[in-house]
Design goal:
Number of domains: 6
Number of helices: 9
Distance between the termini: 117 Å
Largest sheet: 5 strands, antiparallel
Helix content: 10-25%
Structural class: alpha+beta
Strand content: 25-35%
């Protein structure tokens, strides 16, 4: 804004005024030739340095530059933080609160404010320096004002250039959002993945090993992505409950194939739809055909000595049981054989050894040599003979 005053009276270019009784037209040349009679007032820029004692301390912000428009030769209007105008007397205490600044500094400030509006905290942008994608975390940059001398604005402490010579950094949209709610912007990001249900014609667990993948390698429509291993496992557990644990200690979930070994040592593959019926008892289940084949190979060659060694590996106390109560020792071996065969268990009930699952269970009496050995056997076997009466 520009205002012209002739002897304190406001005039405009092309107005006709009287100077020394002569009518003349106001022009820039006339003003220049009569500097003592004309006052030309223009927009000025003032930087607030103090708010204490103002009529309203919320009007202005310290270190912020404001535009001041002339009213007359002794009064100006300064817009506040919400663009309301307040009159200030140039002959009063205005300079207790403001100091003179420049249009250039004001424009720098406006450009920075525009940048902050354009890039709210949390915005993802492609840096103008190297095209790397950054999240705007703060507007800190010690050299922000001086950098503008070179046409730059930097945020994140000077790590991200968002403005350069009238060019703004591109705001980046996420490629997709992971199952646990994390926006992904870069194809090079490593994430934990598992197949989606349309990964194959069955269910997502067929021959799949949970792994961490680079996004660009995979079709996001066929995969579920997670930002952490923990969130992936939590989602899996919620969506696909564990139906049972295989002999090789793997979890079988809804929609997952597995392999059974029957009492004839045949390996039978069960499809994804079969697993919904629960545990495959009394057969033995394995997560892979390799594990099933390994088990069959090891069992076919198994001897009584192998079973005895297994017991000794469990506890050296079985050496005492074999010596003092051999019937109980071989009762344990019977259970191990029954388990391997998938034919149920032998168990002790009211002084008898009983084979479960037989149409007419064979019941055999078991006795102990002495009460002392009976008590010792009970101590070693624990819950297995918890309810067992111990006759001598």
């Amino acid at each position: 804004m520009r205002k012209i005053f002739y002897n304190s009276k406001e005039v405009k270019i092309s107005d006709v005024i009287s100077i020394s009784g002569i009518n003349v037209t106001v022009t820039d040349e006339l003003i220049a030739d009569n500097p003592y009679n004309f006052s030309v007032l223009t927009t000025t820029y003032l930087k607030c340095h103090n708010i204490l004692g103002m009529a309203n301390e919320n009007w202005y912000t310290i270190n912020k530059i404001y535009k001041a428009e002339p009213i007359n030769t002794s009064t100006i209007n300064i817009a506040d933080n919400i663009n309301s105008q307040h009159e200030w007397d140039l002959n009063g205490n205005i300079f207790n609160y403001f100091q003179v600044s420049t249009k250039k500094e004001y424009e720098k400030q406006q450009l920075l404010e525009e940048a902050k509006k354009k890039y709210p905290i949390g915005t993802m942008v492609k840096c103008l320096m190297d095209s790397e994608i950054f999240e705007i975390k703060n507007y800190n940059c010690d050299s922000a004002y001086s950098a503008l001398e070179h046409g730059d604005i930097w945020f994140n402490g000077g790590d991200v250039r968002v403005y350069n010579n009238n060019k703004w950094a591109e705001i980046v949209k996420p490629l997709f959002t992971t199952k646990d709610g994390k926006d992904i912007y870069d194809e090079e990001t490593y994430l934990y993945a598992c197949p989606s249900e349309d990964h194959n014609i069955y269910f997502p667990w067929e021959n799949f090993e949970h792994r961490k993948y680079r996004v660009r390698l995979l079709n996001t429509k066929k995969w579920n992505f997670f930002s952490t291993k923990e969130t992936r496992e939590k989602w899996i557990n919620e969506q696909y409950s564990v139906l049972f644990i295989t002999k090789d200690n793997e979890k079988i979930r809804k929609g997952q194939s597995y392999y059974l070994i029957n009492s004839s040592f045949d390996i039978i593959k069960k499809g994804p739809k079969d697993s919904q019926y629960g545990s495959p008892y009394p057969c033995k289940a394995f997560s892979s055909i390799e594990a099933a084949q390994k088990y069959v190979s090891s069992f076919i060659d198994k001897t009584l000595i192998d079973y005895e060694k297994e017991l000794y590996d469990m506890s050296k106390k079985f050496i005492w049981i074999k010596a003092c109560e051999p019937k109980l020792f071989y009762y344990k071996i019977l259970n191990m054989i029954a388990e391997d065969l998938g034919r149920g268990n032998f168990y002790i009930f009211k002084n008898k050894i009983v084979m479960a699952l037989a149409s007419e269970p064979e019941i055999t009496a078991i006795g102990f040599k002495t009460r002392a050995t009976a008590e010792r056997a009970k101590e070693i076997l624990g819950d297995e003979i918890k309810y067992f009466n111990l006759p001598i």
